[in-house]
Each structure stands twice: as C-alpha cells, then as structure tokens.
Amino acid sequence: MGSLLIPNKTAVNKTKTRTGESVVPSSGMCVTCLDGCPGFCEIGKSAYRGPEVIYPEPFGKVTSGGEKEYPVDFTHFNITGSITGHHQVEYDLFTNVNLETSMGRDGGLKLKLPIICTGLGSTKIAANHFGALGSGAAISGTGVVIGENVAGMDDESTITNGKITDSPDLVRRFKSFKDNQKDGYGFIAIQANQEDWRLGVLEYSMEKLGADAVELKWGQGAKNIGGEVKLTSLEKAQKMKGRGYVVIPDPDDPIAQEAFKNGTIEGFERHTRIGAISDYLPRAVDGFINDVEHLRGAGAKYVFLKTGSYRPSDLARAIKFASLSRIDVLTIDGSGGGTGMSPWRMMCEWGIPTVYIAAMTYNMCKRLADRGEYVPDIILAGGLAFEDHIYKAFALLSPFIKAVGMSRSTICAAMVGNTIGKSIEEGKTVKPAGEFGNNVDEIFYYSNKVKSEFGNAIPNGALGIYSYYQRMGTGLRQIMAGSRRQNLADLTRDDIFSLTRECEDVTGISYIMDYDREKAERILDA
Questions:
Q1: Would you list the domain boundaries of the chain?
Q2: Cis bond leading into 432, ω under 30°?
Q3: ω before 254 within 30° of 0 (cis)?
Q4: What Cα–Cα distance (Å) separates residue 48 from each residue in 19, 38, 341?
Q5: What is the pLDDT of residues 4-60, one digit of tens each?
Q6: How confident is the model at residue 90 (pLDDT cuts 50, 70, 90)?
Q7: pLDDT at residue 89 above 60?
Q8: pLDDT in tens, 255-269
Q9: What does the buried/exposed string (b/e) look like for 231-265 if buried means 16 or more CB atoms within 10 Å of the residue's CB?
Q10: Which residue from 214, 213, 208 is spatially nearest to 165, judged by alpha carbons?
Q11: Do residues 323 and 353 touch, judged by C-beta distance below 8 A?
C-alpha cells in the first residue's frame, strides 16, 4: 500500500509542489528542492505566512474535509440484495418503505428522515447560512444542532453577572427552525463547550428560546482541541479576549495592533480552552452525572453528549458515562469529516476514522447491552454524505443507531441553494442550474411543494437542503426495498458484506466470499 496522504500540497491552503507528482512520498517535498523557488508548497508558504497556513482558507467561505485515504471506509462494504422478505412481507412499491425514526429515552424526538445537521457553531460560514439550515431542517422534519461559542461570539449578546441573558444571534437561529416546524417532527438542540457552560448558554436556551435538547461537547472528529475562528477586526478580537477567550496574537499588544493596521497580519484567532476529564474514573463519572442532573433540573427534557475520535478508551468513557447517566443520545464523530475551521494537519492525521470508530462503538455498546445495561441512542457522523452511507451506517451499528450526522454536505446544499437564489435575483442565473430555467419554481424541483406546505418565505438555501434530503430519502427507500427491508429498524449487520479481508478484520462484517456460504450450501444440498 502506498502513502495514504501526500503532504505539502493541498487545495485547502492553496499550495502545490513545483515538480508536480514527482515528490518524496513521506514528506511531500519536491525530489529536487530548488534554490530560487518562490515557495509554492506548504513549507514554502509557511516560510512567509507562518501559522496562517495551518488553517483552511478562505475562512468563512469554505468548509473542509480530510484528504487522507483511510485503509477502510464505507466503499469497502457492499449492500446485500435479496428476493426474500425479511418478515415475509409482500412488497409492491419502494415508496412504501418507512424512513421515520425517533430518539431519546421516551422516543419523543421524531424525525421524518434519519438525518441530523450537527454542531454548526460560531464560524462565519455557519452564521451566514444558519437561516437556511434551521428552516431546511424544520421543513424536512430532521434535526439541527447549534454549535459551540455562538452566544459568546455574538457582538450583541448581553452578559449579566457572567451569564448570557440575551443573544440576538441565538434568537435568530432558534427562530429559523421554530417558525417552520410542522406536526412535531424534527428538533433543534444547542451544544455547549467549556466557555458556553461557564456563560450559562444551555440554561438561557432552555428558559428563553425553547431548546428541544441540550448537548454537552467533548469534541469532534475534525480536531482534538477546542473551537477556533478567525476575527477580522481589532475591536472584535479585544472583545473576545475580554469575554475570556484565548486570542492570538494578543490584540492588546501594540506590535500585533501595528501589524494588523499595516496589513502584515489579516486578523486574529479566537480559541477556546482545552477541556480534560479526570483519569480517575469515579471522580469523572460523578462530575458528569452531576452535570447531567443539573441540566435536567434546569428543564432539559433531552440531554445529548457529543464526542470526537479520541483513543478507544475515551470512546469507552463516553459510552459508559452516557450509560450511567442515562444520556438520551450520544453523537460519535469520526475523523476525516468536516470543519469550518480546524488545523489542517491535525484534521488529516489524528483520531479514529469513521468506519473504525463505528466498529468500536458497536462492540462496546453490545458489551453493555449483553449485560443488561442501558445504551443511549447513537448518532454516527464523520464524512457521510449519501443514502448508501446512511444504509451502511445503520447496518454496521444496528440496533443502536437512530440517525446519522451530515453537516458539511448539508451546508453544501444550503450554499448552492442560496447561490442559485442570489443569481436569480440578480438576473444572471448561474450554470448549471440555468439549464433548467431562470426562476425558483423552474429550477428547484420541490419549490411548489414547499410553497404549498410552508408558504413563500422559505429561503432558497432551505429549498436546497429539502431537495438534497428528499433525494437521499428516495434513494434510501430504493436501496432498502432492494434488500426487502420495510423499516430502518429492520436493518441488521447481515445487510452488508465486506469487500476486503481488512474490512472484515476491522468491522467483523463477513467477507463477501464467506457471506451466506452455509446457507447457500444448505440450499444446494436440499
């Protein structure tokens, strides 16, 4: 097997190598590093822009996903088809397949499709598009989670005695969902990191904004440190420092101020502090259970936990802590997923990739379930984007999974919808959408349907999300019907097989040449 990722050049930070593909595989450096080269590569750009090269760019206009080719991913499974019914049900139309699911200890969080848009926080791109994201989730009957640091980053927030008492940005985000929710389907939750917990963001969101669920955050698949964003004004940087965030370079340093004024640096980075959990298990468990009980006492009907792709023992902590505290939902985010801003090398080179962490999650959840212990509902995230990913995730993690997290792909659909809508307003419909017409009703497949159900005020970005989600729903129904599965709960680990021995070794899913062998032989020998 060759290198899984050739470093030193990536579209993420607009770098390339002078010698093209002729590079040293381990370092990514040109085989002949030339004196006189102006610095096209990542090393070269770092020589004059330093830490700016760590992050994807341009900030606020892109989301990024890891480039590393992991040895096993979702393409290493194929879906089993069958001409026999799972429950001897007579099948007629694939459209009859039921994709509804529910989450929470009482099953009270109902979804029309098993999709959650997870953790969209204080990055500029999330802020710019959340109106579409919230309303798109609402009209689709799916879930959306407001990510970390939103209230703390809101210039208009009111902080009284160290606690958030008003945040217009949070109000706007909740309103985008609540104003468009129909028939009780879907939900909007809010996430909290250490800074949000300190500011009382969860309590404010429950008391004032009607949060359906709250989520404690341990991490995400894109990075193993706290959240960060770029700030493009000195005043904002100083305000964030005053609110307790880590800001680099120091916006109160006269040298940094002068560098920003003359354009040497383009802005500042806002970072959150790095949290840690005690390695002494009893103390850590007690502290976590106390936090969960505090939230329930403050009015939380549903409590989530989100964890990143830390080492396997930390995954075990997340699952065990969620079991002991009877958390409603545990979101597990694999490496290689998506980000609005994360250190690029970290994103590609740390953590447990999604298929691997899904396999570990299944084994750990089964271990608890076999002993009769409580297992929370699982959401799997990390680079999932299409209907076959949903099917394979449900099969791989059956029966514990209840939904998948799809954030980067959802934002993509929102951005495209908004871009098309803006081009229509400006009278210059962009290609390739212009091939289908020159107005919203002609271009957007579901425009008239959405208008008839929700009115004319739905953003074009939300139309994009709805259309994308409906496409996945139709495709998933087709795949499930091909496997003769009527409901998501019917899917089992027997509904996929491994295409490689390595995939079988990682996941425990049977290799294709061994799959069904005994059953096939019994049929032949009957």
A1: 228-271
A2: yes
A3: no
A4: 20, 10, 21
A5: 888 999 999 999 999 988 999 989 999 999 999 999 999 999 999 998 999 888 888
A6: low
A7: no
A8: 999 999 999 998 999
A9: beebebbbbbbebebbbebebeeeebbeebeeeeb
A10: 208
A11: no
Question: Is 166 in contact with 157 (CB distance < 8 Å)?
Answer: yes
Residue with structure tokens 């396997």? 312
DSSP reduced 3-state for 237: helix
Output the pLDDT for position 236: 94
The length of the chain in residues reads 526
Q: Is the peptide bond before 249 cis (omega within 30 degrees of 0)?
A: yes
1 within 8 A of 25, measured Cβ to Cβ: no
Between CA 189 and CA 194, with CA 193 as vertex, the angle to 5 degrees is: 145
Report, as an integer, the average pLDDT of 442-451: 94
User: Rounded to whole angstroms, what are the CA distances from 503 to 104, 335, 390?
Assistant: 31, 17, 18
Find residue 377's DSSP bridge partners: 329
The one-character DSSP state at 351 is S
d(CA 444, CA 465): 11
Per the DSSP assignment, residues forming a β-bridge with 110 are 102, 185
Residue type, 173: R
280 confidence band (pLDDT: 50, 70, 90): confident
Between CA 271 and CA 119 the distance in angstroms is 16
Report the distance separating Cα 457 and Cα 169, nearest Å. Answer: 19
pTM for the complete prediction?
Answer: 0.93
Contact, 479 vs 432, CB < 8 A? no
Among 9, 209, 36, 240, residue whose Cα is nearest residue 122: 240
